[in-house]
Amino acid sequence: MKVSIIGSGYVGTTLAACLADLGHTVTAIDVDESVVDRINAGEAPIHEPGLADLVAEHAGNRLRATTDYAAVRDTDVTFIALPTPSRKDGSIDTSLVEMGTESLGEALREKDGEHLVVVKSTVVPGTTAERVAPVLVEASGKQLGEGIDVAMNPEFLREGHAVSDFLDPDKIVFGAEREAAFATLRELYRPLTETTDTHVVETGLNEAEIIKYANNAFLAAKISLMNELGNICKEYGIDAYEVADAIGLDDRIGSQFLNSGVGWGGSCFPKDVAALIAAADEVGYDAQLLKAAVAVNDRQPERLLSLLDDHGDVAGQRVAVLGLSFKPGTDDIRESRAIPVIQGLLDRGADVVGYDPVAADRMRERFPDITYADSAAEALRDAHGAVVVTDWDEFAALDEEFDTMARPVVVDGRHVVGRREGLTYEGLTW
Ligand SMILES: NC(=O)C1=CN([C@@H]2O[C@H](COP(=O)(O)OP(=O)(O)OC[C@H]3O[C@@H](n4cnc5c(N)ncnc54)[C@H](O)[C@@H]3O)[C@@H](O)[C@H]2O)C=CC1
Ligand SMILES: O=C(O)[C@H]1O[C@H](OP(=O)(O)OP(=O)(O)OC[C@H]2O[C@@H](n3ccc(=O)[nH]c3=O)[C@H](O)[C@@H]2O)[C@H](O)[C@@H](O)[C@@H]1O
Fold it and tell me: Alpha-carbon distance 160 to 173, whole Å?
């Protein structure tokens, strides 16, 4: 099939490269010329394992990029993979999706034949039917079901595993109102559904939209629940990881996403949980459990720092922050727990030295005045304490580096550094 994709970020580029790999002809549309140039040059505009190879293989062949929305006319399906950021009150801002839809609709005015518009962005219930569809109808001059239609196909990929998650998903969700839209989506995903044992869920637009939020809210709340249990365990001197291993053996609980510690960050969990709380508020429901999940998450960085405080005042002392990205395998620092941790240390008057294998440059934009080390060893040297914020594998291998600390105290927020002689070790929940 001929597919166009509006927005070439984490989701759009992964979708574009993977659909090209599945045999479709794909046009990626982005307003950012540098993104377009990179894709056309066979380079991935974002870092994801396996993505550069796919872009290099298909660019100039089944994959091309442009800034020109007119390119959608030569395609059968357009995905909208534009950002849906949080507003100050937590609700999502759909203005980029609506602007993109308007440009798309205007371009489709001159197109003959059927066209399906698929919302890939994460949007609250009602967005596709009540915001995207009316803008599309108005801009294109066409009626739904008569030359044009809308569908919703949420994305569940994780950063750092985007390509493998897309090509081997647990489930694919199609939301639509008419059979023709479902048929197009089935055809598009056929190369995947025929070769993997993925489940396909066919449902309505609003249902597809909320399934995405329910998925993320469940996972975020699961981590917060484990953090709550972990905090209780810590007070009793019990290792919460032993407890998690045991409860995870119950199939009804499952062993994944039970890693307690300094909490969840990233571009999606915080934004999506806030958006669901705000959407619930709007329809008159007070989402108490989700609010509590956020409150527990917000508290973890301060709990980490109070464990460090127990070992002495850090004012005027060098303190190492190991890990700056929101999780290992990425340089993404959006909503990283390292941000409140660094801020908390600065508020205490500490002299902060941060280290991350890939995310230091990004964190430098947020905290230009702290020191950045080129290695964990350098960060630890002469430090009066260290906190571990990201579970990079290399931190598990640290050993003699701790001997160079002025005061060898480590507070581990990710259960990654081992206990060793000569080191005062504190686990956040163990
Ligand atoms: N990042 C992730 O891991 C996941 C994100 N999502 C959702 O997917 C959506 C997109 O997120 P990301 O891919 O992370 O965004 P992103 O910020 O990585 O990329 C967005 C791209 O859209 C482009 N853009 C902005 N306005 C445009 C316009 N009017 N026309 C064309 N291009 C335009 C930007 O230049 C940028 O390249 C969001 O709703 C997000 O919640 C869903 C699942 C996973
Ligand atoms: O909507 C999205 O964008 C995506 O959000 C998450 O993916 P992602 O944010 O890339 O990363 P995760 O691996 O889920 O980790 C999120 C945060 O939770 C933390 N986490 C994760 C697991 C765990 O057991 N404990 C824990 O604290 C991580 O350190 C990280 O800060 C979801 O896992 C994806 O399914 C979803 O598509």
Answer: 22
